Automatic annotation (TrEMBL):
It comes from Kineosporia babensis. The keyword Nuclease does not apply. This is ATP-binding protein. Residues 1-21 are annotated as: Disordered. InterPro entries: AAA_16 (IPR041664), Cyt_c-like_dom (IPR009056), P-loop_NTPase (IPR027417). The keyword Protein biosynthesis does not apply. PANTHER family: ATPASE DOMAIN-CONTAINING PROTEIN, DNA-BINDING PROTEIN-RELATED. Residues 171-337 form the Cytochrome c domain. Pfam families: AAA_16.
């Protein structure tokens, strides 16, 4: 098989050649956009799922749908310990520009409000008591700042005012604005609260601005901890692994575009080793194509490819995350993997999690003494707590990887 024509794309957030199994989510979002365009009430949307299920890819596909409708769009990726103002201002700046030249005076005014909003982020003083050079920042908005609107310094007040003004400009242009936030669980608590308050105000006024977030499975708990009414603000869509039919489509359609195919046995073998996770499908598919001497790709080709694919995943997908953990955190991760090995057959850790008390028993420690390691791993995005007293890996098959490493 010609490696130059290999169609598979195992990259972070990189759109696969065939976006299989996501028609329902794409169709639902089209309905949301149409309803908002007609002045109908709609909730913002939050995609939740493990790493490697294609949340970022789907987020980008939803954004493309908004662009096709000539909405203004902007996207940002939340980062731990990074305030929301600057990245959100950059995303909204792009969204306003995408709305086009209609209602130019209104757009100029709201850009001035956006500039004031962006510049209100407190600058951290340097060790000498002066503002650090990196914080003497100016947004690239070529209009004068407008004072008295979205510049109070209180992110909740400012964001409500900013979203209201921008949505008003979009409504005047007969369109809408969609803001896409990846890794939403990493927003600071005060920014989560502000975002919920702003979405609440948008919903009450029926304004054409929607927030689309993506994050790990505990994101609903993060939002709920901020505002008790958050479950009514957002529609949650759980993004999971593909079923066998969708997984086969993700493999076959790109291959057939290149004049190749998989046997039915090969598709079954691929599903066995990937469990239907989109990132793994691309990773194994790429290697299987390269090792197969001819079309169709057979189950034997998949079995030959599996060790190479697993070795690449061990370095790039699993290993890079494991390396971020400290020795005490790695001990905790390995204990999680050992406990999860005892889960009933057919029930994955992503489904049920494991009890923190069982990890403490396995390590012979008091649960309280393990809290720092657990909390740090949650902050690093390696594990999450879907319910009190239970935790799970954010990465599919991470426990299997750790057990395999321990056996080597």
């Amino acid at each position: 098989m010609d490696p130059v024509r290999n169609p598979y794309a195992p990259g972070a957030g990189q759109r696969p050649p065939e976006l299989a199994g996501r028609d329902a989510e794409l169709g639902s979002f089209d309905v949301v956009l149409e309803r908002i365009s007609r002045g109908r009430p709609e909730r913002s949307l939050v995609l939740i799922g493990l790493r490697g299920v294609g949340k970022t890819v789907l987020l980008n596909a939803l954004r493309s749908g908004a662009v096709r409708r000539q909405w203004g769009t902007g996207k940002l990726e939340a980062r731990p310990d990074t305030p929301l103002r600057r990245p959100l201002a950059a995303a909204l700046h792009q969204a306003i520009r995408e709305l086009g030249p209609a209602h130019r005076d209104d757009a100029t005014h709201v850009l001035g409000v956006l500039k004031s909003f962006a510049m209100k982020e407190p600058a951290a003083p340097s060790s000498r008591g002066k503002t650090a050079l990196r914080d003497r920042w100016q947004p690239g908005i070529d209009v004068p700042a407008v004072s008295g609107r979205a510049d109070s310094g209180d992110i909740e007040i400012d964001l409500v005012e900013l979203f209201t003004d921008i949505a008003g400009v979009a409504a005047g242009a007969g369109r809408g604005v969609a803001v896409f936030i990846d890794e939403m669980q990493d927003l600071l608590p005060e920014d989560v609260s502000a975002l919920c308050a702003a979405c609440h105000e948008l919903g009450q006024q029926g304004l054409p601005l929607v927030v689309v977030g993506a994050g790990l499975p505990h994101l609903p708990a993060v939002l709920s901890a901020s505002k008790s009414y958050s479950e009514r603000l957002f529609r949650y869509a759980r993004i999971d692994r593909l079923d066998p039919e969708a997984a086969a489509q993700a493999l076959r359609s790109p291959a057939q575009e290149e004049g190749a195919d998989f046997t039915e046995d090969a598709l079954a073998e691929m599903y066995e080793v990937t469990a239907g996770y989109p990132y793994f499908i691309q990773a194994y598919g790429k290697v299987a194509w390269d090792v197969a001497p001819r079309t169709p790709i057979t189950a034997d080709d998949v079995r030959v490819a599996a060790p190479e694919a697993e070795a690449e995943l061990a370095v790039g997908f699993f290993g890079s995350r494991y390396e971020r953990a400290t020795p005490s955190e790695r001990e905790y991760l390995r204990a999680m993997a050992d406990v999860s090995a005892e889960l009933p057959a057919g029930l994955s850790m992503a489904d049920a999690g494991v009890a923190t008390s069982e990890i403490a028993v396995l390590l012979g420690r008091k649960p309280q003494s393990l809290s720092p390691a657990r909390d740090s791993l949650i902050k690093k995005g390696l594990i999450y707590s879907g319910e009190r007293g239970r935790i799970a890996f954010t990465v599919p098959h991470f426990g299997r990887y750790l057990r395999r490493q321990a056996g080597d």
